[in-house]
Amino acid sequence: MYAQLVKSEGKSQAELTPEDIAFQERIDRGEKIEPKEWMPEGYRKTLIRQIGQHAHSEIVGQLPEGNWITRAPTLERKQILLAKVQDEAGHGLYLYCAAETLGVSRDQLLEKLHSGEMKYSSIFNYPTLTWADMGAVGWLVDGAAIMNQVPLQRTSYGPYSRAMIRICKEESFHQRQGYAIMMKMATGTPEQKRMAQDALNRLWYPSLMMFGPSDKDSVHSVQSMAWKIKMNSNDELRQKFVDQTVPQAEYLGLTVPDPNLKWNEEKGGYDFSEPDWDEFYQVLKGNGPCNKERLGARVKAWEDGAWYRDAMVAHAKKKAARAVAAE
Ligand code: FAQ
After folding, report:
1. Hey, how many other C-beta atoms are within 10 angstroms of the C-beta on 171?
2. Whole-prediction pTM
């Protein structure tokens, strides 16, 4: 514990304050940390980075699916997809609110997203080419998101943990709606089954990348796990995701695009190929297939909404002035 505290706060062991030590003891006892309470600066910054990145992912994550709302094959599918995309907007808002309790405004976070200073999940830089991709996104992307987010319900920061409880309830519905689309496609015409397989082929490895780099290359995992900002390592969750998803693919009669996929009796899980990490880092650097398009769409939405934000501020000022005049 002390070694980790020394590293995170850039202090020698002798320099650790009683607050630093008492804080870590609270975390170790499983207590929740609440907004107004003392916290190390590194803890606050790590939370802002992770919650902010998570919020941005929910908002940017609307784009690949929003793209299909007008092209959904039936009215029922359109309603379901519309509701799902709206849910993602709500998740983004809960998370921006959680981040605001740490002393950063939503506008500041958005500015960092728009300037490229803050990241969002790599997965949303891949295109959604056919209707089957709506199935694969729900099944795989929301499936991976839940695998990561269910443990985060127990994260040490109160507002983040409470936001995750609400988000997870909705995400499990999202995963099921995606799987329902996959079932329809995989048991449909040969062309539909081919589309379902193609969606799995394209989205499998990008979904594995959602869990972050392998543990040996993860910069933040050790510290974040000591602070219970993260509950599991990237590789642990990736393994759980593969173990859960492979039988689901088999049930659909689809093939996971990995020739090395094999059940390993000894470890009680599948052996599988790592994603192409060079591709992952290229996507993080802004060179994925859709980075420019996604960020461009968000910046345009922000700029197009300026008149509305200005009008709301002008209206609030007028109302406040009227209230003062009436006193
Ligand atoms: N994409 O040291 P680590 C969703 C960065 S929600 C982009 O391992 P950490 C819902 C990382 O930031 C999906 N960047 O980092 C939905 C760091 O860079 P930095 C989002 C990534 O934070 C579904 C560097 O690499 N979920 O999908 C990625 O300990 C459908 C080193 O990595 C969350 O955000 C990546 N995949 O672990 C919406 C969950 N992976 O910041 C619409 C909360 C890593 O130093 C439709 N977040 N990086 O410049 C987490 O659990 C963690 O932040 C990880 C990364 C696990 C994502």
Report:
1. 24
2. 0.94
